[in-house]
Amino acid sequence: MAASGENVQLLGIVGSPFVCRVQIALKLKGVEYEFVEQTLGQKSELLLKYNPVHKKVPVLAHNEKPIAESLVILEYIDETWKSNPILPSEPYQRAMARFWSKFIDDKVVDTTWKSVFTVEEEEREKRIEELSEALQFLENELKDKFFGGEEFGFVDIAAVFVAFYVPLFQEIAGLHLFTAEKFPKLYDWSQDFLNHPVVKESLPPRDPLFAFFKGRYESLTASK
Amino acid sequence: MAASGENVQLLGIVGSPFVCRVQIALKLKGVEYEFVEQTLGQKSELLLKYNPVHKKVPVLAHNEKPIAESLVILEYIDETWKSNPILPSEPYQRAMARFWSKFIDDKVVDTTWKSVFTVEEEEREKRIEELSEALQFLENELKDKFFGGEEFGFVDIAAVFVAFYVPLFQEIAGLHLFTAEKFPKLYDWSQDFLNHPVVKESLPPRDPLFAFFKGRYESLTASK
After folding, report:
1. Which residue from B221, B202, B222 is spatially nearest to B27, judged by alpha carbons?
2. Is the pLDDT confidence value at B217 over 60?
3. Are the beta carbons of B102 and A72 closer than 8 angstroms?
């Protein structure tokens, strides 16, 4: 819990997977914070002041000291509020957690996006193949209930993109890629993770997000 | 220093900026290691075994436990061998170090490459402009002798790309971007950093690297 006199602000947009990561971590730690909602496509003065480099959410401001980049923020949260550790304590396990979180950012996020919103057919097929390979790596990596073991941790939080956004995007595009048949362990994991009370409370409402991206998808495919 | 009975291997290629980061960190910590040289364009069995996901160097194997991704390796080294800390101890300063290291990977490395090896003129000009902006952010961020303070640390090591490779590439392409006039603090930093005994010993020999990339550059511009 944030000590009295502490000021914790999260600059975010509802629906951003990167913001959602920070929300899950703060909720897990029981840190009270103010959600300073930003408008998509507009850069508020506070955002420009707090993240002049990338001008993007999320930004966590702790007593007016700003931090950007969701995985950097997660490490900060874990080092600042010690209850319910997100990262393991052993250096090798910590390295593995950092490796797989980076893997999700490098190999899943952008690829998912392109596997849905790429107009050119051959290119899109290639992205779907890449996404399938990436999900297979995660399927193989999952040894316990969660990536973090019996409790969820750093990789699980990073992988909220896999649990929540990949199914949403594939439904929009009519893809049948991330299914219980093809990735049984990862699929079970996604259900356990999404139904965890801390995660459930932190997720954005699905319907408006679905409608928003469905609209973008339809205008894209209509213009083909 | 590695405890007796410890086995530290670094799978690398001489000339890789990412491998060089790990070499600097190991040397700073006084860790003895075996350099297992890989051949460019070939994937050894050991590399495929140790980094099946990305199939890339560097890989650090500590008692046969492999870790990939240079910044992940640096954190592991810092957590495993405690002398000469690479990261600051205070959480906010640690977050800043992680932020700027990621910034170098996201905004400098690829941009430098493209500002030299992009054939299309307009696109190349755009990359040079982006690189210039990125260097300006680093110039503004530099408050002490090193990014790490009086001693070099995590960001400095990540920024070996800026100190050693940016000047090399700009010389190949006849660019005059990273100069003492345009970026005085960053330029002084680069000289201090490159002349630090630990760094000096860890750098690849410049001449063969220059010849290699000059050759690639000339064949590219000849084919325009």
Report:
1. B202
2. yes
3. yes
In the predicted model, is pLDDT for residue B4 greater than 70? no
Q: Give the number of other Cβ atoms within 10 Å of residue B89's Cβ.
A: 8
Residues A174 and A217 in one domain: yes
Q: Do B92 and A68 touch (CB under 8 A)?
A: no
Residues A120 and A52 reside in one and the same domain: no
Domain boundary among A49, A80, A111: A80
Residue of B nearest to A92 (CA): B76
Q: Mean pLDDT for chain B?
A: 95
Q: Decide if A59 contacts A67 (C-beta within 8 A).
A: yes
Are A105 and A200 contained in the same domain?
Answer: yes
pLDDT, mean of residues B93-120: 96
Read off the CATH number of the domain in which A98 is found: 1.20.1050.10
CA dihedral B20→B26→B32→B37, nearest 10 degrees, is -20
The verdict on B67 and B113 lying in the same domain is: no
Under DSSP, the state recorded for A118 is -
Q: Please name the member of A69, A80, A102 whose beta carbon is closest to the beta carbon of B72.
A: A102
> What's the confidence (pLDDT) of residue B5?
73
A204 and A96 together in one domain: yes
- Chain B residues with beta carbon closer than 8 angstroms to that of A98: 69, 72, 75
Whether A155 is covered by a domain: the verdict is: yes
Asked whether the predicted pLDDT for residue A182 surpasses 90, the reply is yes
